Amino acid sequence: MSDTTIMESFKGKFRLDELLILRNDSWSWSVRPWQPTLGSGVLSLNRFAPRLSAVTPDEMKDLAAMISAIEGGVRQVFNYKIMNYLILMMVDHQVHVHVIPRYDTPRIFGGLTWVDNGWPGGAVMTDSQHEGNDTVLFEMQAALKAAQSPSGYVAE
Fold this sequence. Notes:
Elements lengths: L2 H11 L6 E4 L3 E5 L9 E5 L11 H22 L3 E5 L9 E7 L4 E3 L2 E3 L19 H13 L10
Antiparallel strand pairs: 1-2, 2-3, 3-5, 4-5, 6-7
């Protein structure tokens, strides 16, 4: 499979462009279509790279800035307790990070109750709370976009 095919497949699977919250030169942050916890996202490298070791020093610098923006936005909108970052790449061989906010109590968003079923242990990545509810995913996207301060990033 070509690099372009892998990237297009990855972008389609996670609906990266459709659920985009924020993008910088190197990374894009999108709402994760499957929500193990409220506000879960995917942080993905904008170019094809099959290994974390392929990420350049400049891209790592951009990653640090993006993480700061993510944590600030998710804290403002959902008041998470702690943030988990999972780099798995067992199925999708493209550098990306699953961003999983963690909660010690239920949250209400979009008129729905959200529970962190793994708290205080590991995130239950197979949970997909309110699956198929695109309305709430777009509400989440809008709320997280609105929480971003002007910082040179493109909130698309």
